[in-house]
Design goal:
elongated; alpha/beta; two-stranded parallel sheet
Amino acid sequence: LRLGSVYGPKQRKGIMFSFAESMRKSREIYIPKQAVYRDFIFIDDVVNAIEKAMGFPAKNAECFNVSSSRKTSLRLVAEIAAKRAPFPVAIKTTNEVPKLRATWGSCRKAKKLLGFSSKTRLVNGLQKTFASYTLLGR
């Protein structure tokens, strides 16, 4: 399985955790000035894909993308997080140049052969994730 950008509650690394820590410490979220996109997938959807893959007949080796099949900007994630914070949060840009500007994948094959598609809407997954950092209400 080739996973997208996995996120979920209590994760202690990655973009969501970095945003949460920055919000907690400075009431700010920093994103690159240059647009950056990722294909985020909630952990519950990853678990579902793993369960489906375990039931796949292993006659031949197969590789499946496990993602939302949507590219989402870091700016959008920052805006959703800031809007739901229990305190004002500023979104600021940096001159940091990301190693990868955009990553996302198609789950067409996983849908066809495994019956997999992500179910968790980004807003709902982010709410659960940021609530686990005790920043946002449930």
